[in-house]
Amino acid sequence: MLMTKWGEDLNKKCPLSEYPRPQFKRDSYFNLNGIWQCEFCESEEIPAEFSYDIVVPFSPEAPLSGVNRTLKSTEYLIYNKNFDLPDGFNKGRVFIHFGAVDQIAKVYINGQFVGVHHGGYTPFTFEITDQIKEHNVINVVVRDLTEKNEYSRGKQKTNRGGIWYSAQSGIWQTVWLESTPVDYIQNVRITPDFDSQTVKFETQNHLTVQKLIYDGDNLIADTTDDVVKIDNAKEWSPENPFLYEVIFKYKDDEVHSYFGIRKFSVGKDGNGMPRLMLNNKPYFMNGLLDQGYYPDGFLTPPSNEAMEFDVKSVKNLGFNMLRKHIKIEPMLWYHYCDVNGIIVWQDMINGGGNYGLEVSAIPFVGINLDDSNYKIFKRTSLEARKLYYKELDEMVTALYNCPCIAVWVPFNEGWGQFDSNYAYTLLKSMDNTRIVDSASGWHDRGNTDVISKHIYFTPIKVHSGVKPWCLTEFGGLSIRVKGHTFNNKMFGYKIFNSKEGLTKAYKNLFEKTIIPQIKDGLSATVYTQVTDVEDELNGLFTYDRKVQKIDTDVLKSINERVKL
């Protein structure tokens, strides 16, 4: 079994114990990760006994869970956890938070139903003030149909292989309790305005909230105003990821957060070429595709240090961007990007029926399909399309305050794509401060901020137009590193037998194709990818993160030239 070093050192009693939401942090925190019980059932009736101990938040399919069993589409996965509320924890209200549960979760506290959530990748919360006691039992009833329905599922597939990865189910992000006073701050939407050097604060429940804003240790504002001017504001950028701290106070409630003063937009450079802009200046976004999978935890990082390792390693190699590919990470991952100065292109999770060649092969002959044809795009379920928009809203709401996020990507390569022009309009209504790449790869229907191309098998040729031209997937150069692979299979777009051969091909790709075309309008690149994932061996790191395939000095030297 392939393991990361963090999985090898896993604390099963309290994994991923750090506070999971730095963007909105209170001092009340009770982590429920650790040893739970679970059972695979034919109905959703909670059983009297449970056959398995499971390490939450790892899915039963993931090795680190200790279960190693796949949830069938005909089964229910039912969790059980007994816990005592810490003395003095309850300040008036108690909430239970789930980072993510795949796909449908019904939650019970002490035998009482408290809520249901549909969607496997977004966080959700239930108030349990009326149900909580000194001694408690929580039950979570899960259904996960993977590709058996049209719900969003990402890269998961029951019959895994190639670019499709092991299916997983159930709880896969941190479960935790939080207590607030009876009168509390529900949420604060933070919107920096780079041009006016102001920050707008919008409270969900329209309270008059005190804001204490800090530049390091210096208090620079103490106000209840909803729009605050920041004098001599320090910019956030990958080169200087400066963050202001802010404390929100309302009666007895206190919440800690932060923000960055930055602006993502599109515009033109001095030669009239369409470009991506950061803080009103043309800026080249040089990044990697990041799947966020692990051999021992699957979608769940074996530790928070593992997430931080990925982010810091990418930054150390000279990249300034990650495209988070068809996955929504734990909130701590975005915090590490905020702190370290990594720009994020955030994919929405794709769904729909099984993807066919009629969608994925046609673009290679230059045909762009109409994505209002739900049948050809395998999006016939009205229920699933409505759920997509619900999850899209949940994603934007959860991640809105993260300074690192520059681009929303609602669809990838036509997988489950539908009504992308409407999705663009909807995203802009949710968030008009960020760029939208409506159809990454192909099937661009017009409403988008960028030209987005995936090119692996044909020559890369920039054709600049009225929008920034972005190469949002390319490369995929592969090599097997003995002793560091998931299995004996290998998938890649071009395979090499030596580190020297891989390095030479990577250098040639950038020096002869990528760097020369920046002047022609190339505005962003996303190389595939950060790490190997299962059969895919095209990462700069092996799947276990133990071997880097191309030397740091080579990558840094190239990346110093991948800029405007």
Task: Write a structural description.
With 564 residues, the chain is of the alpha/beta class. The protein has three domains: 5-180, Jelly Rolls (Sandwich); 188-259, Immunoglobulin-like (Sandwich); 276-559, Glycosidases (TIM Barrel, Alpha-Beta Barrel). The strands form nine sheets. Strands 29-28-27-26-25-34-31-30 form an eight-stranded parallel beta sheet, with helices on one face. Helix 2 runs parallel beside helix 3. The chain is globular and about 65 Å long. The mean pLDDT is 96.
CATH class of the largest domain: Alpha Beta
| Helical coverage, percent range | 10-25%
Outline the low-pLDDT stretches. Answer: none
Question: What structural class do helix, strand and pairing data support?
Answer: alpha/beta
Q: What is the tally of helical segments? A: 8
Q: What's the CATH architecture of the largest domain? A: Alpha-Beta Barrel
Q: Any idea what the radius of gyration is?
A: 23 Å
CATH superfamily of the largest domain: Glycosidases
| CATH topology-level name of the largest domain | TIM Barrel
Largest sheet: 8 strands, parallel
Mean pLDDT: 96
Strand content bin: 25-35%
**Whole-number total of structural domains:** 3
The strands making up the biggest β-sheet line up spatially as: 29-28-27-26-25-34-31-30
Rounded to the nearest angstrom, the distance between the terminal CA atoms is 44 Å
